[in-house]
Amino acid sequence: xxxxxxxxxxxxxxxxxxxxxxxxxxxxxxxxxxxxxxxxxxxxxxxxxxxxxxxxxxxxxxxxxxxxxxxxxxxxxxxxxxxxxxxxxxxxxxxxxxxxxxxxxxxxxxxxxxxxxxxxxxxxxxxxxxxxxxxxxxxxxxxxxxxxxxxxxxxxxxxxxxxxxxxxxxxxxxxxxxxxxxxxxxxxxxxxxxxxxxxxxxxxxxxxxxxxxxxxxxxxxxxxxxxxxxxxxxxxxxxxxxxxxxxxxxxxxxxxxxxxxxxxxxxxxxxxxxxxxxxxxxxxxxxxxxxxxxxxxxxxxxxxxxxxxxxxxxxxxxxxxxxxxxxxxxxxxxxxxxxxxxxxxxxxxxxxxxxxxxxxxxxxxxxxxxxxxxxxxxxxxxxxxxxxxxxxxxxxxxxxxxxxxxxxxxxxxxxxxxxxxxxxxxxxxxxxxxxxxxxxxxxxxxxxxxxxxxxxxxxxxxxxxxxxxxxxxxxxxxxx
Length: 480
Ligand code: NAD
Hints:
Elements: E1 5-7, E2 10-12, E3 19-23, E4 30-35, H1 39-58, H2 61-77, H3 79-90, H4 94-111, H5 114-117, E5 122-127, E6 130-138, E7 141-145, H6 153-164, E8 168-172, H7 179-190, E9 198-200, H8 205-213, E10 219-223, H9 226-238, E11 242-246, E12 251-255, H10 261-273, E13 283-289, H11 293-305, H12 325-340, E14 344-347, E15 366-369, H13 376-379, E16 386-392, H14 395-404, E17 407-408, E18 410-414, H15 418-427, E19 432-435, E20 451-452, E21 455-456, H16 463-470, E22 471-479
Parallel strand pairs: 7-8, 7-10, 8-9, 10-11, 12-13, 12-18, 13-16, 15-16, 18-19
Antiparallel strand pairs: 1-2, 3-4, 5-6, 6-22, 11-21, 14-15, 17-20
Helix pairs in contact: 1-8, 2-4, 2-7, 3-4, 3-7, 4-6, 10-11
This protein binds nicotinamide-adenine-dinucleotide.
Nicotinamide-adenine-dinucleotide (NAD) is lined by residues 145-150, 172, 174-175, 204-205, 208-209, 223-225, 228, 246-249, 280, 381, 383, 409, 448, 450, 454.
């Protein structure tokens, strides 16, 4: 039976009979069916969210936070169940999905601080006898549209803050792996989130377009590829909405000659191949500066060769499959194109034999040398387990490579020189920067989001930005 939408506190069948299968990407075992909801389903969800808004807004912030506290406790109890379910539908290994659930819970923890975070400012006597204050007020209904690669965590970057600030929400999860967050929503209802405060509409393009055009929605939080992010930003803004649209990435890892080789090897291997490369913070192009190149190349090749592919639930699996056959083919096309454009394919991960699970969407660790910045594999997001090596004579040359790229999500430098690290941080022009860290993932109380072609909007996910995004600062000037 297809998943149900969650509208006004009830699980309801979508209006459309069209569905897509959800399968374990390692075995192709069917796990569920997701309905492709249309405009009428979105309309019903918006109506429920609008109806719930006045009462929820009047609920004191401290009581709204208590619901989130209860949900946090329920998620802690369900952590292992959620991680296993997530591994099944996404493919990444259990250590990775446990981390993801944990990162999601941390956003709830942060959102529980809403009574303090939502406070305004006051100044007496802006003129004699006249006082001024700002009051943060919720706006109404927000939509959250999320991608497949972190289906539990990414919705939790947004909706807990939106509801904590007194708004109501329509969530459109990724159609590729919507099952585990469905469980989170069940737990939210169990925690006492009132009917209509959080609504879920499953689907794909039609549901998204209906959200973007809907006059009853005040703002949209989106995460996905840059192409979709750009479209979402333009279309939702044209309809008068607030928008934050986080897009794709092409992340450079800069290795200086004085870097600690052990740190370089473990951090970059994790960054490039973790989650089979399906992360917006994944390292992609590894830049060896000067003498760093040759030793770094050897060690990273050895580490890549040692990675074990398998089902994410099997002990000892380093890397699971990619999400779908279509995505595997897309990654394979990039590998073909890289070789055609003149990069040297030194490790080819195409169609590896994974004996126990021959049907899975496997791509093994793949490594290119001599990756140029204008080749497709040097320029575009591959979103698979593909590492490209390139050389730079100096840190200046390495920074120039980053500047030449369209994306601006994340980058890392590996060095033991504070001066080089400081120079890099100052000049990289990228939003999330690691220093001897391969995945520079901001925790819940810091903003998450990129620059340039990786981000459309101004206020990012998480941190104080979330409070700014979901509230309007209203100014009251009083004379008595
Ligand atoms: P995607 O753009 O295909 O889909 C994201 C969402 O948009 C989904 O809910 C999908 O249903 C919807 N969608 C897709 N195509 C659409 C269209 N043409 N019209 C309307 N809606 C559409 O992204 P994905 O493949 O699910 O996720 C991977 C991408 O997300 C990668 O590019 C990755 O870098 C990016 N991402 C970015 C961040 C970040 O923080 N910047 C975090 C995670 C993922």
